[in-house]
Design a protein that fits this description.
By secondary structure, this protein is α+β, with helices and mostly antiparallel strands. It has 4 domains: about 110 residues; about 170 residues, no CATH class; about 110 residues, no CATH class; about 150 residues, no CATH class. Strands 1, 2, 3, 4, 5 and 6 form a 6-stranded antiparallel beta sheet that branches. Strands 7, 8, 9, 10, 11 and 12 form a 6-stranded antiparallel beta sheet that branches. A 3-stranded antiparallel beta sheet has the order 13-15-16. Helix 1 runs antiparallel to helix 3, helix 1 packs across helix 5 and helix 7 crosses helix 8.
Amino acid sequence: MAWIEAKQLAEAILDGFDRHYRLFREITADARTRFERADWPAAQVAARERIDFYDCRVSETVAVLRREFHLRSPEDSLWKRVKIEYSRLLPQHRQPELAETFYNSVFCRLFDRRYYNNAYIFVWPMLSTEHLEAEVPIFRPYYPGRDGFGEVIWQMIQDFDFSVPFRNRRREVRNLLHAIRARFPTNRARHQNFQLAVLSSPLFRNKAAYVIGKAINGADQVPFAIAILNDGEGGLYVDALLTGEDQISNIFSFSRAYFMIDTEVPAAVVDFLRPLMPRKSKAELYTAIGLQKFGKAEFYRDFLKHLRYSSDQFVVAPGIRGMVMCVFTLPSFPFVFKIIKDRFPPPKEMTRDQVKAKYHLVKMHDRVGRMADSWEYSHVAFPRERFSDELIAMLRESCAGSIEPEGDQLIIKHLYIERRMSPLNLYLATADEDDIAHAALEYGDAIKQLAAANIFPGDFLFKNFGVTRQGRVVFYDYDELCYLTECRFRDIPEAPFPEMEMADEPWYTAGPNDVFPEEFETFLLTDPRFRKVFRRLHGEIFDPSWWRERQTAINEGQVEDVFPYPTEQRFD
């Protein structure tokens, strides 16, 4: 009977998801061991491997369905029944929202996009996760007013039960107490309702563990994060206390790699985090904890809602048009949409697949707060009437192979979506002296931190970097990007004759991977105000030996420290 086959199909798909999340939790839970052992290369490998888990499990599940079932077209009523049967399996599930997305992925891998509607897939969720709770509470409460701040702080840290001891208990508590007293007035801390709520599991990323919580004083809530590091020799130590929405949001930035937090109920973790960072959507928070596929699905739902309750047009994104991507935006929606062009004019010598490979490299890499994350989509339907004439003309001219009219819709076959930023060149065009100094500091820090992560941008032009709402400079144009260790950093050789230095063409030759850092100043620092500040703060960037030293460190397996907070916030 058809309903029996539908039930079996539903169970097979859910088995595939359950296998995925079990493996996802295993590699995530091991983040604690990697942190305690200070095994940073293993942490980087695990972070990359985990990103691919989802697609691997989807492929495995599709293979099982094709092997064990006689799959019929969705036009048969069977697949509508499969969705119903699948829904019946989810009310007692601990990750129902993720399981729905997995179902969508499997179905979309099997069938044509004309079936991508709510009759066949979960365009809209069937179950609410608002009150979903784990068997073990996801956070612990502490009451400093009753037990004393010093004792409570130490108890809070001890409750995480790290196998590696802290270097100096008194110093850790003292540093935290001083920071707390500086940021929380004493009278507030004495309020009878004052308490701390702390996630029961730390979040791990790169070389740090983060204790995330909120200070609750009546109706007021102040988010905080305690950064814990492991020096690999003497033990653990508290490096910084971060407080307030902006500082916490910066840790969870779209330009950082995904955190690892072991949780049975991710919805409960996200519900805890949302009040701490109210400007971040559920999509962004799920993505931040490594569940980027559900984040992608949730983002699309937010996008559909926004289209319904807005009327402005998609327009060409401001800034200098790129040679590889067509970029457009919806002014009322804080994101940009990027489509690979059909052809690249000289001097670009690359293929469409190579561009996609660059974006995949960034997805898999630690972005260290300096590269924008992207959501990648295929066959996305946009309302044609919402596109400006200028945008339609640009797409027809440069991206005709990636667009397809379909009734009153425009189907974009492949695109990337990123958080919108102000291009650095436009930012500098209206910047005052203070803004220029800040941009010079951030721009140089971005280059240095990318180098620490073994990334060479390739094209340092200001138009390829953006400025975030919080004033951070972030790289977002990846077609020239490569690993730092693939480059050959050379000194400019002395000219055979002095007059050759004044010639239009260089007197030296360059191979495909050769880089001459001494040339950077000529084409980057054209504004004398920017040049003066940049040379003072980051003059070593023009020194080839500085770059070669970075390569040596990477080749020796060193993982440099890159902190998601300013140096002045670190404890001494």
